[in-house]
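Q: My labmate handed me this sequence with no annotations at all. I'd like to see what the chain might look like in three dimensions before we decide whether it's worth expressing. Could you predict it?
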Amino acid sequence: MGKITARPSASGSIREQQGFSLLEVAILAVLLLVAIGGLSGAVLSSLRLSRSSEESTQADEATRALAARMQTSAFADLFRLYDANPANDPVGTAPGMHFDVRGLTPRSDDADGRVGRIVFPIVDVGGGAQSLRENVEDARLGMANGGRDLNSDAFVDGADHSGDYTILPARLIVEWTGAGGDRSYELDLLLVP
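A: Here is what I predict for the chain of 193 residues:
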């Protein structure tokens, strides 16, 4: 019998004909794991971003729906309906200044456990009562440089205008803990009759 010897073929060496070495397989496995890790990180990041976007949409839709409800309420009752004082509610129980948004989780430090609140240019006068004031400084509510004339008498003063306002600035705020951590959304309004 003759002796069998391995010779390189025309297409390559003996090693190529025998397949991959254990080292090559290990390197390929590591590279594959790195690629899969990067891809899964990108997928998780995309899912988190998608959830954050969905939460922002929920906050936007809820505040716009509340703004629409406020605009259909009797204008003279708006402040009393949506302030923090239940004692001045025009008819029984009013919605008040806090509201919920379905699908959003209140922040852990939120005292009332509700994600939404309505802010007016007010001063707390004690006992849960609030005074709607013209001399509150809030540029986003259009009340910079000394305030804004809320009752159209051509003067800005420090009196309570909760019974005689002709314009009513308001800010709807939603604060929640979501996929991207603590988030917030705000909508500024100028309500008129």
